[in-house]
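Box 3.1. Reading complex inputs
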Amino acid sequence: MSELAASKPETTEDNNNDNDSLTPSTFLKTVLGRPVTVHLSSSSRYTGILSCLDGYMNIAMEQTEEYEGGQLKAKYGDVFIRGNNVMYIATEKKIK
Amino acid sequence: MSTKVMPLELIDKCIGSRLWVIMKNSKELCGTLRGFDDYVNMVLDDVTEYTMVDGVKEKTKLEQILLNGNNIAVLVPGGDPEA
Amino acid sequence: MSSISAPLDLIRLSLDERVYVKCRSSRELRGKLHAYDQHLNMVLSDVEETVERVEVDEETDEVIVKKESRSVDMLFVRGDVVILVSPPLRTT
């Protein structure tokens, strides 16, 4: 399982143009509490408010709706999604 | 005068420009690369997602995503699946 | 969810409560959560397991979704098959 460098200082050489790049770890800090859509590799997707996440991309969400093939399948008050299933996290509005 | 380019250096040069991402599971994404980390998890802007549904390519637009590096197969700098 | 600072806190708060677990290969579990670890290996009791099978009728080509359920007193779930965990009683 890949671990995001969420809490690590960004010292690696691939982050050296730090002026205008938005690294995964900064993205994670800015999306907390926002409405997001989480797409799993199994092609189901979850929309809700992002409560918190960790370096494994494990996710806790609130007011979550589950969609499969565009159809609403279920609603969850709170939900935990195991990070290895996550393909991407999309925000509704752009973060600058 | 051999100029070796490390794989991640190449990706670093792509920051700010369009990048075509081919996933292991026949999905493809194209977006502007905002940043990435050692695992090649990436933040992409103005993304178009291409999914094969019954042999037909479906397009989805996404404003901004954090893409898990786990399922990435191929990265094409500047590429566009429609071109 | 104010007391949550990490996703696994949500699981910790669900200890001794009934939870819903969505697993790979269309498997769902509902049971009381006794223990878990950082891999999300879990011990559940009074479990109802539901497996969804999609079959195609050979004569009519109809797609039939079959749900099979069974009860298990206590079981161990290996973390890597877990997709999602939710406390079902708080489900809207």
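In summary: Chain C is about 5% helix and 55% strand.
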